[in-house]
Amino acid sequence: MNNESMMCDLETGVCGVSEEETMQKINLNHVEKKITLYYATDPICSHCWALEPVLQRFVDEYGHYFTMQIKMGGLLANWNGFSDGANGIQKPSDVAGHWKEVGEHSRMPIDGSLWHGNPILSSYPPSRVFKVIQSTHPGKEHEFLRRAREAVFAFNRNIGEDDVLTDIVNQLGLNGKEVVEAAAQQSAQELLEEDFERVASLAVRGFPSIIIVNEENEGMKIVGARSLETYVQALQQVLGVDLQPKQITPLEQKINEGHLLFSKEIEVMYDIEKSDVASYVTSELAENTYRMGHILNEMYIEHI
Prior knowledge:
Number of domains: 2
CATH topology of the largest domain: Glutaredoxin
CATH superfamily of the largest domain: Glutaredoxin
Radius of gyration: 23 Å
Distance between the termini: 53 Å
Helix content: 40-55%
């Protein structure tokens, strides 16, 4: 104790330095509630791609309140008997128009023309690669999923093909050939089936679905790509306390994560208008540390 703690004030009746109020409410319970956020998704889910800007912002600001678990949902096993009447999808070429509509509405670029000439036959191959990476290189699976989505949505690459998947995994600094071969084994399919079972137990019927639950498995389910406020309100309701957001990760640090950053993502993350993105990027990043490009009429930046 220092000397000041020995000073006693006759007026306040306090020994020690005290500028506090006479009476105040405190909480000495440091046991934090354990919250789990399940993200039920699929590598070729277009609305999941549309959700990226909001989800990134939500995790960046409020990720300290929960543990996030990404679960594969199995959107497309194959085209035999597949039917999505709600979206008018009966065959691969029907997907192209749907994807284009989602891309234009969300401003997360989607090409989609591969559905006419080189359609994805199943979303299971990239889902199994995700599970293999998750089990052998925990943490890297998030980067794989992001890069796989960039490849299929923005750059029109068929992520159902082994050579494309191998290339994406190689970009992570892993052995793409080994990972893709492992993903073809029955053990990888079993890992995927475990995700399917968990997603079913969460009563998920559409993607994206985000389920936020406490230790008693009580919580909130949000279906579809929603606003940031929707997820914040759901988390607050599950926790039952006022949330304190963390400071947003600076753009200079964000771009070092390795993936592209599209204009829409920068707008949502930093609360700026589309017209201000270019000047914001110039003010935040040092020259010759990034490259700016355009795809499908949308600007993006990447680290160099």
